[in-house]
Amino acid sequence: MNEIKLQPYNFPFWWYGPGLSVVWRWIKRHIGFRLRSTGFVLFVRHLGDPIYGDYTRSGRIISFFLRLCLLGFKLFWIGLNCLLLGLVLLLYILLPALIIIEIIYQIFPF
Predict the structure, then answer these.
(1) CB 3.0-4.6 Å disulfide test: which of 22, 38, 63, 64 passes with 50?
(2) Which residues of 11-50 are buried (b: 16+ CB within 10 A; e: fewer)?
(3) Containing domain of residue 103, as a range?
(4) At what angle are helices 18-38 and 57-107 packed, to 10 degrees?
(5) Are 64 and 44 in contact (CB under 8 A)?
(6) CB within 8 A of 59, min separation 6: which ones?
(7) Is residue 32 a part of any domain in this protein?
(8) Does 58 reside within a domain?
(9) How do residues 43-88 score in pLDDT, each as one tens digit?
């Protein structure tokens, strides 16, 4: 296996190369898991089906609007989760720069 030995001179290349791809794959897996755990795709596919097999006109209308309301909550939950994962990715990208800035600030206080 092609193993990369981390040294101080090649650490930034690893952080923004293979390390970033590992984090990106983790985020994609997490979003896929969240979509499967909430049943979002399946829920959208069966949005027009009546609940409990009630095929009357009122049953179909109530079922549609109830599922639409539930879809809004699921969409909010998935959006919140994606926002948090986006913040994790942004933190991962900015973390080395923030650490270097803090080290410089500690050495040379302004």
Answers:
(1) 63
(2) eeeebeeeeeeebeeebeeeeeebeeebebeeeeeeeeeb
(3) 37-107
(4) 160
(5) no
(6) 50, 51, 52
(7) no
(8) yes
(9) 889 888 888 888 899 999 999 999 999 999 999 999 999 999 999 9
